[in-house]
Amino acid sequence: HRAGIRVVMITGDQRPTAMAIGQQVGIIAPGQDPQACSAWCKDMQVSRLQVAISRKAVRKLSPRSALLIEQLEHSGEEEMTRKQSDPDFIPPPTPRQDDDKNSNEPMYISTEELALMTSKVTVWARAQPSDKVALVESLIGQGNIVAMTGDGVNDAPALKRADAGVAMGISGTAVSKNAADLVLLDDNFSTIVAAVREGRRIYNNTQKYVTFNLSIKAGECMCLMTSIVLGVPMPIRGLQLLFNLLVTHILPTLSLAFEKPEPYLMNVPPRETKGDILVSRIMWLYRWLPFITYFPCVVISCLALGVWSNTGFIRANSLIGSSRITSVQEGLVACEYAGFLDAERRFIDDLAPFHCRCQVRGGNPFASPQEVDQWGRSVMPFEVVTLDRWTGDTGTFFKRESGPWSDGELTLLEPCVDGHGVERWCWKGGEEAAPDGPRLPQAQNCASYGAQIGQSMSYVTMHMGELFTLCSFRTDGMLFYHLTTNPVYGGFFVFNLSCLGVFIYSPTVSGLIGLAPLTPIRFLTSVAFVLVLVTLNECVKIVYRLKTSAMNAELSALALHQTTGLAPPGSSDKMLADDKA
Fold first, then answer.
1. What residues contact residue 462 under an 8 Å CB cut-off, 6+ apart?
2. Residue 19 contacts by C-beta under 8 Å, 6 or more apart in sequence?
3. Least confident span in 22-36, 148-162, 279-293, 492-506
4. 151-165 b/e with 16+ CB inside 10 Å = b?
5. Residue 60 and residue 107: Cα distance in Å, rounded?
6. Which of the chain's ends, N or C, has fewer CB atoms near its CB within 10 Å?
7. Does the pLDDT of residue 577 top 50, yes or no?
8. For 14, how many CA atoms within 13 A lie in the half-sphere containing its CB?
9. Is 257 in contact with 185 (CB distance < 8 Å)?
10. How far, in Å, CA of 292 to CA of 220, rounded?
């Protein structure tokens, strides 16, 4: 009853016997009047004499139901054998005179009167096959989804007419099995309850799957949009996004199929199927919307801290640099570019800087900065630039004293003014000298490496954060109580962390996707942002849990009221009044 499923018993027994059985099995709930909850099936029929005297509005079975009864009543052994071999075969009815057919078919009270009876009565006595079909039709006409169980030939028409016909696999006849949509192999009514619970579990887990995927995909989009608006480096690149999609978005989410049902699933009525959308309004407002709000804040904060602690700058334009004279000396940008003026005095920048200066704090973002000053040089084919991928150190290779810049910038460059009146650095010798000018490699200067460290830290935060977010979305309860309740998720968790280690610390893979290995303190800094994300998830889930509990309490009271007519203790009178209205 609390699941919003109303159980109606239709039996051929006498009414006192039916009432006693209904009370014993709980179909007639304690506190309900057995007399009001039970009725004779003949009470919904009208004799032809009564029709002739009172001229009341009466109804017969629908043509479809009458045809089903006629077909099943007159199917012989040959027809049954053929139907067993061909489920789509419908045996023809035995010809009868129209007068006989009309005289034998029961006549029932009007549709409105029958609906009023079937909405209150849960135990029907002395039922005939046509009565069962009439009851099923009346319940379907009220907008109910009707499942009919039965085992005999007399139940076959109603099994065929119901939305879901359920026959007994052990005691059921061949006619009832062929007419039904489902067959219970154990003849146990509790199997239906278990099937309903399993169906609700599958639907609820599907909701979690869709909500999680919509949240993290929208969250990543918000991260990229936020970085564009703020003018900071991208927190994740294209190839990194593909690797993350495979190991975080696709594989671990399969564990949701093995998630246990929520405790409240069998205490709420069935969902409304008309106009139903998979993700509920509460999930949109209290799971999806908060997540896409704070997720980019956490990721971009980690990125900004990582980039700033390794370059002294945050904005992408400052990291890229400028060709304006004194821009590096004034601390406005990290790198300087040179170039040349074309015939129309338009300045053409080089593709790589000739000088970069960064304020590096190493692994500790709170330590005093150390200045890294790098100057470009022409790298010969046989020369190898050694870059420490843990620290970004290139030794003395790009020191000013060991290269062509030892006597100052003016040995190779000269100030020039472009058509807009901006003073820039130009190569001496103009366009002919520009290709041979000593420059820093794009991926080996301190600004580029510092940005890569920041992106690696933000990737770790995003990767691990989404993994823990999946654990948070798995259940409505507290995350820490459910870390080990799903072994499949546990296996994917270990697999995911292993993949993260390969992505970060394998030279081949990290070089392919553009990540840099993180020192322990940098990695722990990223994990600290993951813990912030987990904390925000759980705080938001407290509000979500309160909203869901309040909604489920009302739905449970409504379900009990609709199935039994009774209100549980503490239920809202306003809710019951609204339901009656």
1. 220, 223, 235, 236, 244, 299
2. 28, 34, 35, 37, 38, 123
3. 22-36
4. bbbbbbbbbbbbeeb
5. 5
6. C
7. no
8. 2
9. no
10. 8
Spatial CB neighbours of 45, under 8 Å, sequence gap ≥ 6: 106, 107, 108, 109, 131
Specify which residues 324 forms β-bridges with.
424
- Report residue 216 as tokens: 């993290």
* 82 touches 175 (CB < 8 A): no
Place of tokens 């869709």: 210
Q: Which secondary structure element, helix H or strand E, spans residue 477, and what is its range?
A: none
Q: Provide Rg for the chain, Cα atoms.
A: 38
> 3-class SS at 379?
coil
Distance between CA atoms of 408 and 410, rounded to whole angstroms? 6
Please state the separation of Cα 46 from the chain's center in Å: 54
Residue whose structure tokens are 């390794």 = 310
Q: How many helices (H) and strands (E) does the chain have?
A: 20, 15
Residue among 445, 451, 443, 457 at smallest CA distance from 517: 457
Q: How far apart are CA 400 and CA 406, in angstroms?
A: 5
Starting from the edge strand earliest in sequence, which strands make up the sheet with 355-360, in order?
335-336, 355-360, 370-375
Render pLDDT for 288-338 as a digit per residue (tens, 0 to 9).
999 999 999 999 999 999 999 999 999 999 999 999 998 999 999 999 999
Question: Would you tell me how many other CB atoms lie within 10 Å of the CB of residue 136?
Answer: 26
β-pairing, 355-360 with 335-336? antiparallel
Length of the chain equals 581
Any idea which residue has 């046509």 for tokens?
130
Lay out the sheet containing 339-341: strands in order across: 347-349, 339-341, 423-427, 413-417
Cα dihedral across residues 186, 188, 190, 195: positive or negative: positive
**What pLDDT was estimated at residue 267?**
82
Rounded Cα distance between 244 and 250, Å, is: 9
Task: Determine the residue type at 554.
Answer: E
Beta bridge partners of 357: 373
Q: How far apart are CA 286 and CA 272, in angstroms?
A: 21
Exposed, middle or buried, 302 (CB in 10 Å: 0-12/13-18/19+)?
Answer: buried
Give the DSSP per-residue string, 415-436: EEE-TTS-EEEEETTGGGTGGG
What 3-state class would DSSP assign to 414? strand
CA 274 to chain centre: 21
Alpha helices in 29-162 (DSSP H): 34-37, 48-54, 63-73, 77-85, 98-104, 111-118, 129-141, 156-161
First to last CA, the chain: 21
Q: Each residue of 52-92: pLDDT tens digit?
A: 555 454 555 555 555 555 555 555 444 455 555 555 554 44
Q: Which residue has the tokens 């012989």?
A: 76
Residue 188 DSSP label: -
